[in-house]
Structure formats: structure tokens, C-alpha cells
Amino acid sequence: MAGGWLRSVEDLLRDDDSGDDGFDEPDPEGYGYGYGYEYGRPVRDLGEYTQVVLIDGQVVDSARHPISGSQYECAALELDHLRGLPPEPVTRTVEVRVPPHEAMAHWLERVVGSREALATLDMQSLPESTPVDPSAAADPERELVQAVDRELERASAGWVVTHEVLTACRRLLVAAEQAGMLRIWRDLEPAKVAAIIVHCIAKANGLVGQGAAFTVAHWLRDLGTTAAPATRSRTLAETIGGAQWPHGKAPTEVPDVYVLGDPSMLVSRFRTELIHYRDLARRHEQG
């Protein structure tokens, strides 16, 4: 190996036509305002070159000298000597694919609120609806709570699914008041606030949207509107349930629903569907 290295050094020296000995060391005292220097200091640091002394093909001495100011400075510039420096580190984002059953379990836990709630999820119908007690609301919102509650009950008379959806809507009304949303919406007509509540519950239970049996108009027409209050409805969902998807993506095979994180606002039909997804994910995990 040493012989090969020596031969490569000899070849390097043989190709060098810079002078008799090929290594004219620059005079340090001669550094001044020449090419590559400004006020006695190099404008660009070109690194160093190595001087190797051979006697009968054997290395007897070596020394390193700065390229800047030497007779090799122009050659180094022509060769772009510094291009071999390592490039700046590049940061790349790598998306790690989550196994399907884990993605499904994460989605289910977000929809119902927790792993414990998912484990105890049942298919029982929500209880018969009762009017909201306004006494628990803050003084400025009590009258609005009562008025919205009446609008909800009036609108429910035209729904195909009545008492479960009405119960869920009334529970969301209480949650909205506790979260301060009625204070924000206190200048809205009660029917418009009720429409926000109904639309949010319909979206959270997959009662509207692609593949749903009913349209938004079915749930809202008795409130004097057929247009979805989508912006306020989604704001309400995010206020109650938090950021809809804090990380990752919802599985492609699940319905596009709002996340409230509370099974007490989910009707039995939708909870039955969630239980099916849960059991399917468990079988995939075990198998």
C-alpha cells in the first residue's frame, strides 16, 4: 500500500510544471495588497496546500502552507478549490405511515373523547329529551338559552329522528353556553343560534353529507333557513371538541364528521357504527 501511495505522489509531482522543485514557498513578509488580499489580510481563505519532500522516492518531510498569496492561488481559484466543502445540512420531512388499525383507533378516540370512552361505548338510545334548565346559565345568557331551547323543540317536530337528536342538541346548547359561545352570539336571533346547534349535531353524527339519508334542509327548514351555518357551526365544534385533527389524518373510509369528543352527544345509530369500526380495528390489531 505504501508503494502505491508513493507512486501516486510521484505522478502528482511529475505532472506539476510550476518550477524546478515545484514548491516555491511564498515569502510571508511579501504579503501586501496583491491579488486576493486587502489591507494585508486575505479576502478569501483558499485553504492550504501540502509540500512533500522526497529523497530517492521516500518521503522525508512535509509541510502545509496557505494557498492564498502563493504561486498556486490562481490555479486554486480556477479549480474552484473550495467546492468540495460539505454542503449546508438539508432538513427533509419524512412522513411515517401509521398502520391502518392504529389510525382508526386514534380517530375513534378523538370522536368519543378518550380511549376509556371508546372501550365502554354502547348502542343504547339517548334518553328522552327534557327542556334545558336556564338557571345554570350566566345571567346575560339565560333568556337566550330559553329562547333557543324553544326553537329546538319546535324544529324537532319535523325531524324523522326526533328525541335522540333533540337530546343531543340540548346537551350541546348547555356545552355552548358553558364555553361562552352564547355570549358571542347574543345578538343573533334565537332561531339562528338553534340552526348552528342543529347543524353541528347533524355534522357530528354523520346525519348530513355524502351518503347521508337527509340533507341539511331537512334539519333546518323549520328554523326558517335551509342554508348551513357552516362557519359558526365548525367554530362551535372546535370550541367544544378542540382542534379537529391535531396530528395525522382521518382514515379515508370513515365519514367526514365534526369532533365533539363526547359520546353523550352522539345518537345510537352513529355509536353503533363507531362500535363496528372499533371491533374491526381490534381484530386487525390481534390478527
Would you mind describing this structure in some detail?
The protein has 2 domains: 2-84, no CATH class; 100-286, no CATH class. It has helices at 2-14, 73-78, 100-112, 115-119, 139-156, 163-178, 181-184, 190-204, 216-220, 230-241, 268-286, and strands spanning 37-38, 41-42, 48-55, 58-66. The longest helix is centred in the last third of the chain and has 19 residues, at 268-286. The protein has 11 helices and 4 strands. It is 44% helix and 7% strand. A hairpin with a 2-residue loop joins strand 3 and strand 4. The strands form 2 sheets. The protein has a two-stranded antiparallel ribbon with strand order 1-2. The protein has a two-stranded antiparallel ribbon with strand order 3-4.
- The proportion of residues forming helix, as a percent range, comes to 40-55%
User: Structural class of the helices, strands and pairings?
Assistant: mainly alpha
The total count of helices amounts to 11
**Beta content:** 5-15%
